[in-house]
Design a protein that fits this description.
Length: about 375
């Protein structure tokens, strides 16, 4: 889905799904349970919601997941989901760490090995800032991605050779740095620019490892596999996505609500993280899309009715949907993960986005 639609549509849809009469009743756990009930009603087999409020962490799960051995279990904070594009904020954090360390600059041009031609337009080269703020002019996906692709696992076949061929055929829609247009390709290239052909190891070393996010990775450990939810599309089980080339876009990242709450805790209190300056840099506005949407590095920044700023990102793969949002002004964060894919419509956001943002708005105003 497009982030602009989520920023405008989720608040509208969230208001419909979480009426004002419910906002006054109950604390975070009661509100979370109501949101989870609505997530299940929208078609999710299982859902987990996590909240940070007043320095305390709350996690609730709902639905039933089929565990190994055939028994049904209620998902919880340790249940593994595919994360999707929330992973872009991890890549952006790696960029911010490199900038703070002095090994690159936000205005550095995108540089790849010679066989990967970087498109340009209007005499303006794509910079790393352009990639991290979706203002590069790149299309959402490489033009040759779907050639011979498995529709249930569309990135798995794509190789570095394919990427070189695809970039040669890629044209920018706009001059870099001028227009917001969400791009998985852009973030995939950002990862390759930071650590060519070693993106996953780089993210573990620079971001998830130092933050203690043990279950946030692209390769399942045996323990994670035993706790993983099965993804669904239109009620049917589907395979997980695999992505050897553009994984910096979050296309094949796994995580848990517990890990995401640790991550969101670092966003709320950067001074308690191992790299305060990098976290702060990702949350600083670097591009303005319109009056209701600015871009940090990875994070989308939207105003809340309280006057606070909400930083947020959503994600989805072939069988999973997720959304994370936080307000430093009220010290509040929300994450929701479900094991079904869903798409926004022209006038309504995905249920997981509407519920997450609606819940954050409630808690931020409480």
């Amino acid at each position: 889905m497009t982030a602009t639609a989520a920023a405008t549509g989720a608040s509208v849809a969230g208001a419909a799904l979480l009426p004002g009469s419910a906002a006054a009743a109950g604390g975070p756990s009661a509100r979370m349970r109501r949101a989870l009930e609505k997530a299940l009603a929208s078609g999710a087999p299982g859902a987990v919601c996590g909240v940070i409020r007043g320095g305390r962490t709350h996690v609730e799960g709902a639905g039933r997941l089929r565990a190994r051995g055939g028994r049904a279990v209620v998902p919880d904070g340790g249940t593994v989901f595919q994360l999707g594009s929330i992973g872009k904020t991890l890549t952006a954090t790696a960029l911010a760490r490199a900038v703070h360390a002095g090994t690159t600059r936000l205005d550095a041009p995108l540089t790849l090995p010679a066989r990967f031609p970087v498109p340009h337009k209007g005499g303006r080269r794509i910079t790393l800032r352009d990639l991290a703020t979706h203002s590069s002019g790149l299309p959402s996906l490489p033009p040759n991605l779907f050639t011979e692709a498995d529709p249930y696992n569309p990135y798995a076949h794509y190789t570095l050779d394919d990427l070189a061929e695809g970039l040669a055929a890629t044209e920018l829609a706009t001059v870099p740095g001028k227009t917001y247009a969400y791009s998985n390709l852009g973030f995939g290239l950002l990862g390759q620019a930071l650590a060519f052909d070693g993106v996953d190891a780089m993210l573990r070393r620079r971001v998830t490892g130092p933050l203690g996010l043990r279950d946030t990775r692209t390769t399942l450990t045996r323990d994670m596999a035993a706790r993983k939810a099965v993804g669904h599309l239109e009620g049917k089980a589907v395979p997980d996505w695999r992505d050897p080339v553009l994984s910096a876009a979050g296309t094949s990242m796994y995580s848990t609500a517990d890990d995401m709450l640790r991550y969101l805790g670092a966003q709320l209190r950067p001074e308690r993280s191992p790299f305060r300056e990098a976290v702060e840099l990702t949350q600083r506005p670097h591009f303005t899309a319109d009056e209701g949407l600015r871009l940090g590095l990875g994070w989308h920044l939207s105003p809340l009715p309280s006057g606070h700023t909400m930083a947020w990102h959503n994600g989805g793969t072939g069988g999973f949907s997720s959304c994370a949002a936080f307000s430093r002004g009220s010290g509040t964060a929300v994450v929701m993960m479900v094991n079904t894919a869903s798409e926004e419509t022209e006038d309504q956001a995905r249920p997981v986005d509407a519920l997450t943002i609606g819940l954050l708005r409630e808690l931020d105003a409480a």
